[in-house]
Specification:
Elements lengths: L1 H17 L6 E7 L7 E5 L8 E5 L3 E5 L6 E6 L8 E5 L8 E6 L14 E6 L9 E5 L5 E10 L2 E8 L15 E5 L10 E5 L7 E6 L4 E7 L2 E8 L2 E9 L8 E5 L5 E7 L5 E6 L5 E5 L5 E7 L8 E6 L9 E7 L7 E5 L8 E7 L8 E6 L4 E7 L5
Antiparallel strand pairs: 1-28, 2-3, 3-4, 4-5, 6-7, 7-8, 8-9, 10-11, 11-12, 12-13, 14-15, 15-16, 16-17, 18-19, 19-20, 20-21, 22-23, 23-24, 24-25, 26-27, 27-28
Length: 387
């Protein structure tokens, strides 16, 4: 009887994966005249209950209105050098996003803080299609990534990660200063900030986990993925590492069909590998080595299977002389085997950044990508089909 039950479970599981949807995405060009497309954010800018696309381009911060996708400039020439990142989230409950940006991108300069790094909060005008007012905040050298984090019931912080520490050379020296900014009632006043961590190097990106028990950060670095938790009003290291000793750039958490969490990562920094890291055993599975300058990553349930798939993008031509975005889908409950899918290649995408959001409110997640050398912003519209 037990053997029969086990066989039925195996048959049911195999049938489930055999019937899994085939990825089907169709490209729409949102903009084909950008400059670099450093960073994307998604959120409702104008309060119409539809998610818009925000972009930190080389010299301009812009947003594209959902529907007609008209482009509006929010800020221009914030510093003498490039913009580099953007964070957008509704943190006051009015249904419209608040926006912060990073600029003065000069990664080779790690000694002179006046020539490398900048952080701005943008104050929205009454008409969000007009220019927004920039407020300069404190910054560390080589500002690189930022996100809004909900750390308490009614409290948000702006988390900012530089790429290098002060005076670093070749990723060595003092650690990167990862900071958390409190939001004052008057954004033109000084923003209090707190040191989260200063032990890592080449902190290319991070992810925020807002779990029921605590808000956590997973920081991707030269040393691996470090987890830090917000508890009792402060950020505290958890002693948990994911992929310790494995240099990683992009990091995102996902869930296997068996509900076990994993972390997908581009390895090493700007690397050629997409890896899956076990959150408990520190082991890794290499899904592909065919990236070149892997630079964009997201883990979400695009196919409606109840588990996560991995979308990854790279920005330089690989051995096949291709750039693009690929989707990796687990083929079994434990994630032992994965299948790679090529998304719509009707338009080239040298992927600098990648976001997932349901832009058309049809119940599935679409992909939004910005292309560095291809100078474009694309939406990959998700259109599910069954085998």
């Amino acid at each position: 009887m037990k053997k029969l039950l086990f066989a039925l479970i195996q048959l049911s599981t195999a049938s489930l994966f055999a019937q899994s949807p085939v990825p089907n995405f169709k490209i729409q060009v949102i903009d084909n005249q950008i400059s670099i497309g450093y960073g994307l954010a998604i959120g409702d800018v104008d309060g119409d209950q539809r998610k818009d696309i925000l972009l930190a381009d080389q010299k301009e911060i812009v947003w594209y209105r959902n529907g007609d996708w008209k482009r509006f400039v929010m800020a221009t020439n914030l510093t003498t050098k490039d913009n580099v990142c953007i964070a957008a989230r509704d943190i006051d409950g009015d249904g419209r996003v608040e926006v912060a940006v990073g600029a003065m991108w000069n990664p080779a300069e790690t000694k002179d803080i006046t020539q490398s790094g900048a952080v701005f909060y943008l104050i929205r005008p009454k008409d969000p299609t007009q220019l927004w007012e920039p407020v300069r905040l404190h910054h560390e050298i080589t500002t690189h990534r930022m996100r809004w984090a909900k750390v308490d019931k009614n409290k948000y912080q702006l988390i900012v990660a530089p790429l290098h520490g002060l005076g670093n050379s070749n990723g060595e020296g003092v650690g990167v200063k990862l900071l958390a900014y409190d939001v004052p009632k008057n954004p033109k006043q000084a923003w209090p900030y707190h040191l989260i961590d200063s032990t890592l190097h080449i902190t290319h990106n991070f992810e925020i986990w807002e779990d029921k028990d605590a808000t956590r950060l997973l920081i991707g670095s030269k040393e691996g993925g470090k987890v830090i938790s917000y508890q009792k009003g402060q950020w505290t290291p958890t002693q948990q590492w994911i992929g310790e000793g494995t240099g990683v750039g992009e990091v995102r958490r996902g869930y296997l069909p068996n509900k076990k969490p994993f972390v997908a990562a581009v390895s090493p920094w700007h690397g050629n590998q997409l890896v899956v890291l076990d959150t408990q055993t520190n082991t890794k599975k290499v899904l592909t080595t065919r990236l070149n300058q892997g630079h964009a990553l997201t883990c979400e349930d695009f196919l409606g299977t109840g588990s996560s798939q991995i979308a990854v993008g790279w920005r330089n031509p690989n051995a096949d002389k291709k750039v693009g975005v690929r989707l990796f889908v687990p083929k079994d409950a434990n994630g032992e085997n994965w299948e790679e899918f090529t998304l719509d290649e009707s338009v080239m995408m040298a992927c600098e950044d990648l976001q997932a959001a349901d832009l058309d409110n049809d119940g599935d997640l679409d992909l939004i990508a910005s292309g560095r050398s291809t100078l474009n912003v694309l939406v990959y519209w998700n259109q599910r089909i069954l085998k």
